[in-house]
Amino acid sequence: MDVPILRLEKVVKQYDKYRAVNEVSFTMPPGALFGLLGPNGAGKTSLIRIITTITKADEGAVYLNGELLNSRHPEQIGYMPEERGLYKKMKVGEHLIYLARLKGLSPAQARKEIHHWMEKFEIQDWWGKKIEELSKGMQQKIQFIATVLHRPPLIILDEPFSGLDPINTNLIKDEIYELNRQGTSIIFSTHRMEQVEEICRRIVLINKGRNILEGSVKDIKDQFKLNRYRIDFSGEVPAALIDAHTVVEHRDNYVIIQLKAGEDSNQLLRQLLQAGVPVTAFNEILPSLNEIFIRQVQEPQTA
Description:
Blueprint: E1 6-15, E2 18-28, E3 33-37, H1 44-51, E4 59-64, E5 67-68, E6 77-80, H2 92-102, H3 107-121, H4 136-148, E7 154-158, H5 166-181, E8 185-190, H6 193-199, E9 202-207, E10 210-216, H7 217-223, E11 228-233, H8 239-243, E12 246-250, E13 254-258, H9 265-274, E14 279-285, H10 289-297
Parallel strand pairs: 3-8, 3-9, 6-7, 7-8
Antiparallel strand pairs: 1-2, 1-4, 4-5, 9-10, 11-13, 11-14, 12-13
């Protein structure tokens, strides 16, 4: 069995009387596209700071590639924080070389990697520009290059598409997919559920300092499904067949039915076909991650 790229065991972080991280445990398989989700104040940033060795856990342990986290590991991690950390007065080229050197690259290696990424993004003429001369979206491209140029096996991206237009979002997204195809493990920390649903294959959901949900996106959606099916049709569905089931929604050209526990969707489809209903589509409706997210983190209603 492959050693997890990242493993947390009962990690705790306390700030005075506030426990930001409360015995969080999860594993991240190597090569995963992994979503770290949670509402504001859930503890995501505190966890990331521990993983990147910016701060230390008060209790518990973190392992990178099976090795207890230590001061050498930041060179194996690329981290793009939500609050972008660029020096406004520095020029793009010298800034990227400076950041690459901090990650252990030689000046020659740094220049080679920087030129590689600038060519990819077609921004070779930015080398002598000051960071403050760039737009927010342009700065974000530079921040992304700084995150990945040392080719770390683990990349952590905190709200990576914030402030980007659709074209540049797709550009960065394509590079993320390519890095992952090459074997890079990637963590997304975000509240944008639609992006997680599109990109990530596994997630962990953090709320009030605890992880309350973990697993593959497919398994989690299966876990929370409500046995609902949408049947698209032309013509009419016999009223008797409709009345025999729980109807969630009924329109001229489709109906959504919720089956009871033990009822078989294949049997429902057979009944429709035997009744002569011209079915054009028959699909199970799985909950979105946004719906699951809301159900899991919302406060219980009080009388």
